[in-house]
Amino acid sequence: MANFNHLLLVASLLQLALSYPFIPPTCYTKVLNMAQEATLWAAHLKWNPQTSSCMAHMPHLYIDVHNGCVMYKIRTYISLVEGLRQRRCAYTRDMWRLGSTLRQLFIFMSEKCHGELAFTSFDCAALEH
């Protein structure tokens, strides 16, 4: 029985060593990464020749998760992306990816990470640059 316990311990340590470096992301780091991804993806779509006609009237997307106005900004941008369906732009994979990333970010910030986020400013004009 002792050999079995020893073998089980070695197997679990081996599995842990193979998955190194395993650092589970916190909700805060997940939100930061998703915000950066959404900001970069929106900029990419705005300057991409294939999607620039769809994104021409869209405002610049800048997401600062420490700004209290960010939830309003994300909701507004989601509604703008969903409004592109009238122009057949929202049916592309790129636009769908941007919309789904923003929806997931909004859910994470409003429901899942609510206690971990701290808004340090409430400057809505700072999100418009």
Tag the structure with descriptive keywords:
single chain; 129 residues; mainly alpha; 5 helices
Structural class: mainly alpha
Major sheet characteristics = none
Give the termini distance in whole angstroms: 66 Å
Order of helix and strand elements from N to C terminus = HHHHH
Total count of domains: 1
Question: What ranges have pLDDT less than 50 throughout 5 or more consecutive residues?
Answer: none
The number of helical runs is 5
What is the residue-mean pLDDT, rounded to a whole number?
A: 80
Q: Describe the global form.
A: elongated
Number of strands: 0
Q: What is the CA-based Rg, rounded?
A: 21 Å
Residue share in helix: 55-70%
Share in β-strands: under 5%
Helices and strands, with pairings:
Blueprint: H1 2-18, H2 27-47, H3 52-55, H4 70-83, H5 93-112
Helix pairs in contact: 2-5, 4-5
Describe what this molecule looks like in 3D.
It is a single chain. The protein is mostly helical. It has one domain (25-128). Helices cover 59% and strands 0% of the residues. α2 packs antiparallel against α5 (93-112) and α4 runs antiparallel to α5 (93-112). The longest helix is centred in the N-terminal third of the chain and has 21 residues, at 27-47. The chain starts with a helix and ends in a 17-residue tail after the last helix.
